[in-house]
Amino acid sequence: MNFSYTRFIEIGVAVATGLTAGGMSYITFVEAPCRAKLSAADQVLHFRTTFHRAMGVFKPAGIVLVPTLIVCARLTGKPLYYAAALPFALFAPFTALTIAPIYKQLLTCPSPANPKEEEDVKALVSTWAKRHAVRTFLAISGFMCTVSACVLLEGHE
Q: What residue ranges do the domains of the chain occupy?
């Protein structure tokens, strides 16, 4: 394959994984701590306001990145792209098993009406933030593997 064409693909994959890691990091390090300072009712409202937009960005990114990284590994002969695909491949099962139940609760719960309900909502949001931080770690790991693979000049062309 043409070297410049392959490099173009590698740079595109690096940008896509970087944007995903950056977006996940923003949620973990900015949005989640700010949300934690809100009242329970506002936490629910904020979560519902941002949830669908975030899912509209991160779900397709997770679906597209894995096969793209695998194709990039095959085209370049750089196995680090396989390593980069692994953390992104873990997104779906990790989310389905540990975070989706929290999504369902936060999207369907009524606005908290008493102190016990407020505590429950705050605990849910806190648990969600911690689990989201795991996904952020996965995204950053995938990005770091992608950057490492991209700067390697070895592999077959």
A: 3-151
